[in-house]
Write a structure and sequence with these properties.
The chain is 41% helix and 12% strand. It is an alpha+beta fold.
């Protein structure tokens, strides 16, 4: 991951945290600390569990996880993405390995958080100013806050993005649909 992607991840995580509320706050992996001033550059994130594929394997495989639990995971991801979209944040790389899941106490649903905002973009970059968030990560992206037209994982990219159109909320919804299909 480049310094630009790390900057973008921190800026957008701060936007989600400061401007969001519970659905956003609880739906994304929290960034705890960062340093981009001098080497070694780093971003420290909370441990929010294993990626969905690893978590499912630790449960005996996806087919062994009750359907209501799998649908609960999909619903948690959908709520977080909807809350991010309400703030004009596109994830652009929604896939199973970016869904962090941790088992909680017996009988409680697993905790679900979305990670990896390095490919994400902001539809209205000016909103960072009102929150005093430095937008260096978004300054080099050009209009619309899209760092690359084709970012993310090809398998989860919407057909219109693969055809060269800019990512949109619908692109994330397409990836969410694939996740739902795989979980159900």
């Amino acid at each position: 991951m480049t310094i630009t992607a790390l900057n973008r991840e921190v800026a957008l995580a701060r936007l989600l945290r400061q401007n969001g509320g519970a659905p956003v706050e609880d739906g994304f992996v929290r960034i705890l600390e960062w340093n981009f001033d001098s080497p070694p550059y780093f971003v420290e994130i909370e441990h929010a569990g294993d990626g969905l594929p690893e978590w499912a394997a630790s449960q005996g495989g996806l087919e062994r996880i009750p359907l209501d639990t799998r649908l609960g995971i999909a619903a948690a991801v959908a709520r977080a993405i909807a809350a991010a979209h309400a703030l004009d944040v596109l994830h652009k790389d929604l896939k199973p390995s970016n869904i962090m899941v941790s088992s909680s106490t017996a009988g409680a649903p697993p905790a679900v958080r979305i990670g990896d905002l390095g490919s994400s973009s902001l539809l209205t970059p000016g909103q960072l100013d009102s929150l005093a968030i430095t937008d260096l990560a978004l300054a080099s992206e050009g209009s619309g806050g899209h760092p690359q037209m084709l970012a993310g994982t090809i398998l989860y990219s919407a057909p219109e993005v693969l055809a060269g159109q800019p990512p949109s909320r619908a692109s994330d919804v397409y990836a969410m649909g694939l996740l739902l299909y795989q979980l159900a």
